[in-house]
Each structure stands twice: as C-alpha cells, then as structure tokens.
Design brief:
By secondary structure, the chain is of the alpha/beta class. It is built from nine helices and twelve strands.
C-alpha cells in the first residue's frame, strides 16, 4: 500500500511537471523524490508519469489518479485539523441543564458568549428543576447543571455563578408601591404568594427562615413552583412576592418592584455543577465550563 508521503510527492510533481521544482517545494533532493514516485507506481501497478530529459507528463492513469490523490490529502489535513480543534476544546457537544431562574439574565448571556467564542460547540439546553438535574448529572444525561441549593452533591463539583438580591414585587396600586424604603415588617399580615416547599424548596426555606427570624407572618394566599407564575399572580392583584432581582426583566404593566432591606444571607444564588474529573477528558466541556464561570454574576 502506498504512503501519504508518496501522494504528496506525486501531487507536487503533477503540479509542477518538473522534478527539480517539485523537489525544491518539498524541501528535498531529486533522487529521493524520484524513488517516492517509483515506489508509488510500483504499489499501484501503473505508470503515472512519462519522463524524458526535457519534460514530465501525466499518463492517463496519472490524470485519473491526481484528483483522488488530492482529495485523500485534503481529507487527511481536515481530519488532523478536526482532531486538533477537538483537543483544544473548540468543537464538541455539551448538554446543559438549567432551572427556570437562569432564563432571565444569566443563561442568555452564556448562550451569547458561546456563540461568539465557541461557535462550533453544539450546545443542547434542557430546562429541569434542581432535583432532576442532579439525577441527570449522575446518569450522564446532562454534562453541566445550573442548580439551586441545598442539594446532594456526592460525586459532583460546583461553583457559584449567580448571586443577586431579592426584591419585592407589588401590585402597582398597592400602598407599598409608593414606599421607597421597605423592610420585612412591611409584609406582616399582607397577602403573599409563596414558593412551594417541594419544587421551590430553595426559596421556600430561605423566605420561611427570614419571616421566622424577623417574627413576621405574611398571609400565604398561593403556593407556586415558578417565579414567572408568582409574578403573574402578583400582576393579578392577589398578593405580594419576594423574587430574585433578575426577574424584574419580566416587565408587566400591573406590578412594580422595590428594593427591601434583608439580611446579608438573603440573596438568590445559582451554582454550576458538573461530574467530578470528567471535564479533564473532554476539552470542549472544560472550555464551556470556563466560559460559564467567566460570565458569573456575583453582585
């Protein structure tokens, strides 16, 4: 079987139709170049070139073989480039799980940065609650997860990528909408839309702790899973809600958002989680994880 080096020699000679010029382009002398062509012809069992003292011409076999040889060399170069790009983490596939709260600000910023800096990484997005993301991470159905804590992280690593204040969402005609300085005391006995203790565990436990420590007792009128559902209920006038600041991007005519004095720990955090040690063997995953961390919003 012939070798790639023999193909390169043949293609150069065919391009130049001159052994001297072809040898110079290949940075070699004429005798080894001639041997490479002879060995190629022997392997193929055909004559590719007609040589005289004054000229070199392609035979019919050479004419037929040339485009195929060029194609083989091009495919080899493309294969080498593909391997090198994969090793550098420029190509590959990443499956990212995310909770609904990532939709408002952080995830769009990550997707835009990936399109700019890692355009050849195939990104698949899957919206999932935290508990489902953790199971998907452990079973390999997703590669990265944007999760809320607390969570069982055995076998996983994580880092905080979003930290933002909580704000009060109020119906536009509510009396608190006209106040500029608010505290938890303003929420006592007010109708309040609360996160579910199951699917909304992270925020439910945070707010429950806040109210308990402050001795405040809002009147819980509805329990919901998602923040956007909570804001829609506030928009209907049913009550108030405490939500992450990024959700203020959901602009509804019937609500206003107001800052509220809260303890330092009362901020909304989102963590990026991944399987321990796997990213080392997957350069694209490493590059994408690093890009996400670089986009972190830790106010």
């Amino acid at each position: 079987m012939f070798q790639l080096s023999q193909l390169r020699c043949f293609v150069e000679v065919a391009a130049e139709l001159h052994f001297g010029r072809a040898a110079e382009r290949l940075n070699m002398t004429q005798p080894p170049l001639s041997r490479q062509i002879q060995q190629l012809e022997h392997a193929l069992g055909v004559e590719l070139l007609v040589r005289t003292r004054r000229s070199v011409q392609l035979t019919a076999a050479g004419e037929a073989f040339l485009p195929e040889a060029q194609d083989v060399l091009q495919r080899c170069a493309s294969a080498a480039l593909a391997a090198q790009r994969a090793m550098r983490g420029e190509t590959g596939r990443v499956v990212l799980g995310y909770s609904a709260g990532a939709n408002y600000s952080f995830l769009p910023r990550v997707v835009a940065a990936a399109q700019e800096h890692l355009p050849d990484i195939d990104l698949e997005l899957r919206e999932m609650v935290t508990v489902d993301q953790l199971e998907a991470l452990r079973t390999g159905r997703i590669d990265l997860g944007l999760i809320r804590l607390p969570a069982e992280l055995a076998g996983l690593e994580m880092t905080c990528v979003v930290r933002e204040p909580m704000v009060l969402v109020v119906p536009r005609r509510h009396a608190l909408a006209r106040k500029r300085k608010l505290s938890l005391a303003d929420l006592h006995d007010e109708p309040f839309v609360m996160y579910l203790p199951g699917d909304g565990r992270y925020f439910h436990e945070m707010l429950h702790t806040l109210f308990h420590e402050a001795g405040i007792q809002p009147r819980f009128v509805q329990f919901v899973r998602h923040t956007h559902s909570m804001i829609a209920l506030v928009n209907s006038g049913i009550g108030l809600a405490l939500v992450p600041h990024s959700t203020t991007l959901l602009r509804l005519e019937g609500v206003v958002t107001r800052p509220i004095a809260l303890p330092a720990y009362a901020n909304a955090q989102m963590h990026l989680a991944w399987r321990r040690r796997e990213a080392v063997s997957r350069p694209a995953l490493t590059r994408f994880r690093e890009l996400m961390i670089a986009q972190a919003s830790l106010d």
